[in-house]
Specification:
Number of strands: 17
Largest sheet: 5 strands, parallel
Distance between the termini: 48 Å
Number of helices: 16
Length: 441
């Protein structure tokens, strides 16, 4: 079967849409393919353009020199796993292929393809129109909206790209009914979590999801539980929120007090008394891995204390569904942080969960600056524009690098950050110490 097959992969394949209703053929009966998940066979035709847009010379140099560049008394160390992961590369590649395949059609993107401002701006420059969730529009286009997307302007002859985060089953069904072409770039790691949540709902377990309730991926994942009549979900952001669930399970709080705080993060008509008797833990793939595992252990121990070990063994499930790329980048940062570093720079979108997780790890050990783009580093003024961990606002810090003396700067980047932006940031750090990056050989 060709890559442009109308039939999405079957339910038994590892990285496939878990929702049986997401098989989109041709609702108007024309037989013309409307669903594409494996690209269009145009990878070679867009490869040169992708390379020119997203590769970085200094990054290539770092990789060939054991991830280390030194000039004068400044040393830059790059974490060994960083930047674009396979799922992001695939999503961006398919978006470029879609533009090449349908040069004369209106192409929409359901939200942001990934959480990187440079990549999204490039797609907009290619004539791809972003359809943002209503709450994201109110928040200034942050891409972290918990609202619904208005597809009323989409026509059957149009093309809609589904982002790497996926879309809810409701959004997919709306697009299927419209009959437009769908280019599905949903990451395979996300699809694996969907299958896990679907299995929980099928077996009568509530999906307790470690994630951000407003995040596109978490919303899409939670929707998988709704394919079954009694399917339920409940979303916790961190260990503190998970502890509130444990307090209810063990009788230290009421269902009313729990729902007062979590009504926005639970399935409609969620009843803690009924729906927290059987729990399966899943997670947004880009969360801090150690916290996801700790939440699973916390909930499991709580159920055992409340109902006994035998009950918990039958009525509690947990699986590590952090994606491998997220785990690898976190592990690489932990390894780098074992070295003596004066400053750490983390590059990636402010609404990128995996980037925020990296910044959180770094902040525990060394002075850390999370920048959204290389342009946030201004060598001329010595100012860095960044967002402190936990803040919603950017701040500017002057003299963030000492003007003289030996200095070791660590660098990492989220899975949606292209190499050219990492390389530009490296160059700007050198320039901030008066070193012309062009002279580095």
């Amino acid at each position: 079967m060709s890559d442009t097959s109308v039939k999405p992969p079957g339910p038994d394949e590892a990285a496939t849409p878990a929702n049986r209703n997401m098989h989109a053929s041709s609702p108007n009966g024309t037989g013309v393919p409307t669903y594409f998940r494996k690209g269009f066979g145009l990878k070679s035709e867009v490869q040169s353009e992708l390379a020119s847009d997203y590769t970085g010379q200094l990054v290539d140099m770092l990789k060939t020199r054991e991830y280390t560049l030194t000039a004068d008394d400044l040393t830059i160390r790059l974490a060994k796993e960083f930047g674009f992961c396979y799922g992001v590369e695939r999503a961006v590649d398919y978006a470029y292929q879609a533009r090449k395949k349908f040069p004369d059609r209106t192409i929409y993107l359901a939200g942001e393809i990934i959480h990187n401002p440079h990549v999204n701006s490039k797609l907009q420059a290619m004539g791809i129109t972003f359809l943002m969730p209503e709450s994201a529009k109110r928040d200034g286009g942050s891409g972290t909206g918990g609202g619904h997307i208005d597809f009323s302007g989409v026509r059957p002859e149009d093309v809609v790209i589904l982002p790497a985060f996926g879309v809810t089953i409701t959004d997919f069904e709306i697009l299927r009914q419209i009959g437009c072409v769908m280019v599905d770039t949903t990451c395979g790691s996300v699809l694996n979590v969907w299958k896990r949540v679907e299995s929980y709902a099928r077996d009568g377990f509530t999906s307790l999801i470690h994630g951000k309730y407003y995040h596109e991926e978490t919303r899409a994942t939670a929707s998988q539980a709704e394919k079954y009549e009694r399917g339920q979900y409940f979303i916790v952001r961190n260990m503190e929120e998970a502890q509130l669930v444990c307090d209810f399970i063990e009788g230290r709080s009421s269902s009313d007090s729990l729902m007062e705080q979590f009504r926005h993060a639970a399935s409609p008509n969620f009843d803690p008394v009924r729906d927290l008797k059987r729990i399966g833990v899943a997670n947004q793939t880009t969360m801090l891995a150690r916290e996801s595992l700790a939440i699973g252990e916390l909930i499991g121990r709580s159920m055992a204390r409340a109902h006994g070990e035998e009950y918990a063994a039958k009525n509690f499930r947990t699986f590590d569904t952090i994606c491998s790329a997220t785990q690898e980048r976190q592990d690489a940062v932990v390894e780098l942080l074992r070295e003596p570093l004066d400053v750490m720079v983390v590059i990636g979108g402010y609404n990128s969960s995996n980037t925020i997780s990296l910044a959180a790890l770094c902040s525990e050990t060394v002075r850390t600056f999370h920048v959204e783009d290389a342009d946030d580093i201004d060598p001329a003024s010595g100012v860095i524009r960044h967002r402190p961990l936990g803040s919603k606002e950017e701040v500017e810090s002057s003299d963030w690098l000492p003007a003289a003396g030996p200095l070791r700067v660590g660098i990492t980047a989220g899975a949606s950050t292209p190499n050219n932006k990492i390389g530009e940031a490296v160059g700007r750090i050198f320039a901030s110490r008066g070193i012309d990056p062009k002279t580095i050989q």
